[in-house]
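Appendix C reproduces, verbatim, an entry submitted by the partner laboratory led by Prof. M.T., so that reviewers can inspect both the input and the predicted structure.
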Amino acid sequence: MTADGKNNDLDFLGQSGPLSRKLELLHREVRNRYGALDRVAVVVYDAQTDLLSTFLESNGEPPALRNYQAKLAEAPALLALRESGVGRAVADLDHYGHASHEHTRRLRAAGYRSSYTVPMFARGEFFGFIFHDSREPAYFQPEMLAHLDPFARLLALVVIGELSAIHTLKAATLTMRHVANQRDSETGAHLERMARYCRLIARAVAETHDLSDEYIEDLFLFAPLHDIGKIAIPDSILLKPGALTAEEFGIMCGHVAKGLELIDLVLQEFGFTGLAHIEVLRNLIFSHHENFDGSGYPRGLKGEAIPIEARITTVADMFDALTSRRSYKPAWPLDVAFAEIRRQAGHKLDPVCVEALIAQADEVVAIQRQFVESVYG
């Protein structure tokens, strides 16, 4: 509340809600005061793959950059910003020395003329960049930047706070699996690969399913938690080399409900119940064993009644299981694995998600080459 008793839109920053909404409110607050700040956007950084990915954007119109990725190493100006740790203003994008870069070309095509870019850091860790853009050339003068910097810092704190909470949630739940001494086939590299396959698929179907960049990033972060309920399954069943009995299979099927119970407990205990897109996490845990033809469990959902995040996760998980070496089988060649998931399309798997992954074979191979383990997975 303000001194005169009126609601302050900035109060929303301390409440639960999507980051995209918080960005819109901050952007509106700044624009109401300073006029020509036409666009604010956030990209996040994945250190393991050196990828910058679009995450949030507020400009009052269709995004200038959506579903876009680039290697930081291939963007020298941004790499220099990361290394310097300070912001950089560009007076006129039409005369910018790095104007040939794809993201600069897109911004110029959308009518933006000047920009101010700020790297995001917390405790020495680099999280990404905040971009401020104006259709006025030379908009970001020193006096303007003095007003803008506090808002940039506030936005960085909000974004980093949410991402850090998700990283903590992910680390806490995955650590539980190790503490419980579960020795199933879901190794660290498997989880890294399948999470990135999820991101590939989600980006490919984003337009069809109206998936925001914020949603895609959260799906990527949440995907490794899909089988967290397996920590409640006895080794005698989880690690059984032969076929399960009907009773054992029933116990195994219970891992999705156990996973949901566990994640709800962790969310409550860590104070994360206000995280955006928590339903994405809950859905992929509870529904990733639903089959597209309705033959799966626990609810027998069919087709598009299955949440899209669960359909994406199921394709990514099955494909990586096929292409990973296990104690009982060799890794399947890429073409054989693609043929198998295509055979399962319409039965266990969503055909659109299957084709989305197959269409990105080069990216799949790059992920496999990067995330390799010396034993299984």
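Strands lie at 39-46, 51-58, 69-71, 88-90, 114-122, 125-134. Additional entries are available on request from the coordinating office.
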